[in-house]
Amino acid sequence: MEEQVGNGMGVLDAETWTGKVHLDGAWVTGGGAPLQVREAASGDVIAELGTASVGQVEEAARTAARAQRDWAVLPPAARAAVLRRASDLFSKHADDITPWIVRESGGTWAKAATEVLAAVAECGEASALPTHPHGDTLATNKERWSLSRRLPAGVVSVIAPFNYPLTLAIRSVAPALALGNAVLLKPDPRTSVCGGVVLQRIFEEAGLPAGVLQVLPGGSEIGAAVVNAPEVRIISFTGSTAAGLKVGEAAAQQMKRAHLELGGNNAVMVLPGADVAAAAAAGAFASFLHQGQICQAAGRHLVHESQAEQYISELARIAASLVVGDPYRQEGVQIGPVIDERQLTAIGALVDKAVAAGAEVRAGGRAEGRCYLPTVLTGLDQRMPVWQDEIFGPVAPVLSYRTVDEAVDLVNSSPYGLSVAVLGDVGTAMTVADRIRSGIVHINEQTVGDEAMAPFGGMGASGNGARFGGPEANYEAFTETQWVTVRPTIETYAVPSGRAPLNG
Q1: pLDDT digits (tens, 9 = 90+) for 479-497
Q2: What SS3 class is residue 393?
Q3: CA 317 – CA 288 distance, rounded (Å)
Q4: Which positions are annotated as active-site residues?
């Protein structure tokens, strides 16, 4: 095994968690097979975790249900204080956390820094939720008060992916905890330190009571267990559409709520007359950031035919100029490794199939070690899988259009509906946004964007319309509504007398 990431001390001291899982306030030996933590750039083993057994998940769910009851009745200020301390601790320990994100996920240092900043922001925003108004006074036709109020759902399971492991875990974990729930967190096996251990250790240090958050690394059987545990009432899943459909089906069969944030085949639409250099820079960012391994990454570029060649040339120039390599060991790397060999092979297969069908490679088009070069494709047929499917790699397919109506139809032809960028004249872009079926529309920005205070989620194959971010969306996601009526005295009810039938 290679040297320990970072200095190995402080909040991420490896002796605390190596070979273990966290149950009911203690780090204990995992009941599943040991999990080797591998570096994305080299495949080298850099740490070892324990994994949970199904029995340990069931135990964790029971523990969480007990701990949640005490956590939920704490004064709002007490829960808020834990979230504020967590926010401060993410900032304080950024230098310990970022190397794990770089090495496990293959992200650049800049990408890793944005994840830590996101964790700081998510916990800061969540710290305001306990004291946010959590009910309404309702109109009523009777002599009483009529109220609705939000109550914690109970136990929430969070299943997080590998690509932005810290960000996509904390955006559900923080608000769920702040609103009085307990959480079972199942990180992706490939990023279980930065997407799991980091959160557990930070919240431990922040003073979260034992059992309220439990991190349960493991494979698909552990994912199923955190969905099926009877104590779990809500599942927050971020991942592929195929896996999300299975989670949604299992949840529906058990009358549980599932918030599914799934894949995307997002479009950048460049309007006629747009600044081509600025648009190409935005398009490159959208397709190549974190090797395109983002649910919001741009997998389709639609450019008016009058500017298509200019846009393609500029996009290809940017792609060829990007520094590709191992961000942990090389200076100035902008494109790091793909998460694993399986994904690297899948990206290459989509590109090769498109080329065989007549597409032209204007930049990239091949792997280099464990990286895939930033790629620009033209000469496409919209029936090609590289146009229709989510690529999850640094590939930018470009297609020209004649009219804005045609471009809108092309955007809406995808079953996905997560994020769309419209670049150019604002007046035209606003009318376009009104016609686009997408959970997110960015005008004169690229497709990738998320803020802790903004509702986030997709439509169609990109999700079931659930949202995270901002008090309204987070209350909707992680609480239940209770109707309460109050009369000044007990209402008088007519009671049947004698032998009169009750339905009389």
Answers
A1: 999 999 999 999 999 887 7
A2: coil
A3: 13
A4: 261, 295
Residues 20/22/26/27 CA torsion (nearest 10 deg): 10
Residue tagged 């007398």 (tokens) = 497
Round to whole Å and give the CA distance between 141 and 339.
60
Residues 412 and 388: beta-carbon distance below 8 Å? no
Question: Contact 399/410 with Cβ under 8 angstroms?
Answer: yes
Per-residue pLDDT tens over the stretch 317-346: 999 999 999 999 999 999 999 999 999 999
Q: Who wins on pLDDT, 72 or 25?
A: 72
Average pLDDT, the chain: 94
Distance of CA 323 to the CA centre of its chain: 27
Q: What is the pLDDT of residues 11-38, one digit of tens each?
A: 888 888 999 998 888 899 999 999 999 9
Token pair, residue 197, equals 């251990």
- Longest alpha-carbon distance in the chain: 93
Per DSSP, the three-state class of 450 is coil
Pairing relation of β-strands 155-159 and 232-238? parallel
For residue 368 the two structure tokens come to: 């280099």
Helix H or strand E encompassing 420: strand 419-423
| Predicted TM-score of the model (pTM) | 0.94
Q: Which of 220, 160, 156, 224 is nearest to 188 (CA)?
A: 160
Structure tokens at 344: 């690297």
